[in-house]
Design a protein that fits this description.
binds the ligand Nc1nc2c(c(=O)[nH]1)N[C@H]1C(S)=C(S)[C@@H](COP(=O)(O)O)O[C@H]1N2, mainly beta, about 375 residues, 6 helices, 23 strands, binds molybdenum atom
Length: about 375
């Protein structure tokens, strides 16, 4: 059996804890990522949680503390299905590492982005049943997996502001692509926070706490924050840098792959584009002359307000080495920045610079 039932050609950044992304070809041409291709990002050992024994505690600034089994969660709240893209804040970090090394972090490519159909209940319904207090400003999540990346080691957690937590798209999900949620993706139950960095979608969630301030968990207060380029990440403490939440507009090329050899003439280029929260993809441009001139790609269907948008463009390519470039615009008219040089940051988050793939066109 392959590790965590993943396809054999996953790009494995680390075996233990398992960190792997699908190659571009596994994402290309598919609006829904099959579960065996979906990236997986883990900060600690993957727990095997018995679905019968699993309980969710809802506490903090609520009228009634709740303790729910999976059976109760399914019976007491309306079921919701949501297609949503997850994207790690470290997606495309490898592009930042080409600018300057980022010791201790993994060189993720464009595959730390995947899309699934999630089934569960709205977190908002559960918070309403608990009687959320008006002073609650944030909703914190806690998993059971203890990460050695925190000092001292602590379970993975994070939080989202109450305004986002009450959006009906935020799920406590037990199924992925119509199957029980696999352990590697947080089974039996995980949080899915569509449009926000993947880190907020806490897996194997055991506790939901309504509180006045953001979570003090390492992965909210210290990691997943955007530090100024000059900052020494070893000196970073709670609250330093910008807290990452909604995902910035981003895109990458899925086909052709980096280094591919193509035939001269008409070639089809495809890729994905994604913008977080309430923003959508408005336009994708492609260029083969370094960005001097652009041509608009054709946008494929918007399959859900919370999913990426695939795009395609037909390019006439002449013989030689060609760099294909793509950039997306979102519905707030934000566009991807040109260069990773200006995006570089000590932990290597949010590389949303122009997508570039170098190919050789045969003579
Ligand atoms: N409990 C727990 N939840 C977690 C993580 C983790 O290490 N532990 N990693 C987070 C990060 S950084 C990302 S990008 C997503 C990845 O989800 P996936 O492994 O299902 O793709 O899970 C998030 N939830
Ligand atoms: Mo992540």
């Amino acid at each position: 059996m392959l590790k965590w039932d993943k396809r054999p050609d996953m790009v494995v950044h680390k075996d233990d804890p398992y960190n792997a992304e699908p190659p571009r070809r596994a994402l290309a041409g598919r609006w829904i990522t099959s579960s065996d291709s979906f990236y997986s990002r883990n900060h600690g050992p993957i727990p095997q949680v018995d679905p019968q024994a699993w309980r969710l505690t809802v506490d903090g600034l609520v009228d009634r503390q709740l303790m729910l089994s999976l059976k109760e969660l399914r019976a007491e709240f309306p079921e919701r299905e949501q297609v949503a893209t997850l994207q790690c804040a470290g997606n495309r970090r490898s592009g930042l590492m080409e600018v300057r090394d980022i010791p201790g972090e993994e060189p993720w490519g464009p595959g730390a982005t995947s899309t699934a159909t999630w089934t569960g209940v709205s977190l908002a319904d559960v918070l309403r049943a608990a009687g959320l207090h008006s002073e609650a400003g944030h909703v914190a999540f806690l998993g059971p997996d203890v990460s050695q990346l925190a000092d001292p080691p602590q379970p993975f957690g994070g939080s989202i502001p109450v305004g986002k937590a009450l959006g009906e798209e935020v799920l406590l999900a037990w199924a992925m692509n119509g199957q029980p949620l696999p352990a590697v993706h947080g089974g039996p139950v995980r949080v899915v926070v569509p449009g926000w960095i993947g880190a907020r979608s806490v897996k194997w969630v055991e506790r939901v706490t309504a509180q006045t301030a953001p979570s003090e968990n390492h992965f909210q207060a210290v990691a997943y924050r955007l530090l100024p380029a000059e900052f020494d990440p070893k000196q970073a403490g709670p609250g330093d840098g910008l807290s990452l939440g909604a995902i910035a507009v981003n895109a990458d090329i899925l086909s052709p792959d980096e280094g591919e050899t193509l035939l001269p003439g008409d070639n089809v280029v495809t890729g994905y584009a994604f913008a977080g929260d309430d923003r959508g993809i408005a336009r994708v441009d492609v260029s083969i002359d370094g960005g001097a001139t652009w041509r608009q790609a054709e946008l494929e269907e918007q399959i859900s307000p919370w999913a990426w948008r695939h795009w395609r463009a037909r390019l006439e390519l002449g013989a030689g080495e060609v760099e294909i470039i793509a950039r997306a615009w979102d519905t707030s008219a934000a566009v991807q920045p040109e260069s990773a040089v200006h995006m570089w940051n000590p932990k290597g988050y949010v590389n949303n610079s122009w997508a570039r793939v170098r190919v050789t066109v045969q003579t």
